[in-house]
Design a protein that fits this description.
- The complex is a heterodimer of chains A (133) and B (189).
- By secondary structure, chain A is an alpha+beta fold.
- Chain A contains three helices and five strands; from the N terminus they run αββαβββα.
- Chain A has a five-stranded antiparallel β-sheet, with helices on both faces.
- In chain A, β4 and β5 form a beta hairpin.
- Chain B is α/β, with parallel strands linked by helices and 189 residues long.
- Chain B is 39% helix and 28% strand.
- Chain B is globular, with a radius of gyration of 16 Å.
- The N and C termini of chain B lie far apart (34 Å).
- Classes of the chains: A alpha+beta (133), B alpha/beta (189).
- At the A-B interface, α2 of A face β2 and β3 of B.
Amino acid sequence: MSIVTHLDPKYISRGELALGGLRSLAPSLRYASLLTEDGFSVVDVAGKEFDSNRFASMASSTQALADAVARELRLGDNEFVIVAAQQGHVVQVRVEEHPLVLAALFTDKATIGTSLTAARRTARRLTTLLMAK
Amino acid sequence: MSEHVILFAGPMGAGKTTAIRALSEIEVVSTEATNSDQAAAAKATTTVALDYGEISVNEAEKVRLYGVPGQKRFDFMWTILAERAEGVILLVNADAENPVETAIEYVKEFFALYKRGGIVIGLTRADLVPNALIEEYANALADEMPDVMIPVFTVDGRSNADMTVLLMTLVANVELKQAIAPTLSRRAR
């Protein structure tokens, strides 16, 4: 019997490594979650004031809606999602080759571009980490 | 143009996406993700935000069909979409564990919509279980909520005809409720 993705030790340990790296890469990081695309939290860092399960579910819905918009408008594959609010922004990026999404909340001290770069690098790193046995 | 908004709710695997596809005149907008919870329902993908379909009643009237994710962890989508809805088609797979209790649970979740518009229940996959008696559901509902009247049907979610019956029943319930609402409020005064 196979282990479900969000309880798989491989995803958890490598997810922790990648999110730890994101934390050092982006001091403005307030919270980050690695989630399955159907909304289960695999691992999260910082921001203990957030409900990790709810954040993962909302990130999953947001990702799917953004993907649907890109599909409906025939824009090709959706690359990332940004929710920009007054006091911060959320960046979401898919982890290539895995049914996973990285969702990270940054304070308004960082620019969206900086946060996006950090999130994309982290997602790419996670793909590499997951390739290793 | 006037519009009617109908919600499709119910547990994961009940056939909400399939039912909307059976009814919709447009290509359904879906938000499917890989289902990593095979224990909850053995299927490849699951809806994580919404399904959206449409039916044109005439040139001036449109019915918008919204399916919500079945899992409780997406209940924020239930709240968002229920705000605009006039009624709910509640689909419950009769071959699931405790389907009667599940049906009652979902009726309670969407009870505000019952009061505002209406709820109808469609039992899917009822042909797979010998005892999917409509009476069992109707009696359980009557015991739990004596003043509530909710029609219960067995349906094939893939069938346009079955789903149309369910939809028309809901629309009739909503219209009846809207028609008698002024009378009831006058009596209450």
